[in-house]
Design goal:
Elements: H1 13-27, H2 39-46, H3 50-62, E1 66-69, E2 73-76, H4 81-105, H5 110-125
Antiparallel strand pairs: 1-2
């Protein structure tokens, strides 16, 4: 879930962490009641300051996606299906945006991008 956290990206680390959790909730990889890694454990795993993880978890709690219980940890809340779908769509839009940013960096013209995306859609979805 946290394998795409990258300090070299312009997106702040706490935002990347929160986005990873949002995507996992949207995809159903995290379900209501599932525990998140402790702040210390995740900070150590990602080699970031624990305050960064706290900031991400607070953002998620403020958005009513997780519940932080003093002394017990952080847990996924029961998220309505339409909200989960919204999180899934937002995560996908971020990925598409990153791919399009890369296409611009590579100076690919829009018609080429459309052709490549269409070919991949055909390959994946038949």
């Amino acid at each position: 879930m946290f394998d795409r956290i990258d300090a070299r990206l312009p997106t702040p680390l706490y935002t990347q962490i929160a986005q990873a959790v949002r995507a996992a909730i949207g995809a159903g990889d995290l379900r209501p009641g599932d525990g998140l890694p402790s702040v210390r454990a995740l900070a150590a795993q990602l080699r970031v300051n624990p305050a960064t993880v706290v900031q991400a978890y607070r953002e998620l709690e403020s958005d009513m996606l997780i519940e932080m219980r003093q002394g017990a940890g952080s847990f996924v809340r029961d998220v309505p299906p339409d909200r989960r779908e919204g999180e899934r769509h937002a995560a996908f839009r971020r990925l598409v945006g990153q791919a399009l940013d890369e296409a611009v960096r590579m100076s690919l013209p829009p018609h080429t991008v459309r052709q490549l995306v269409s070919a991949e859609l055909d390959r994946v979805f038949g």
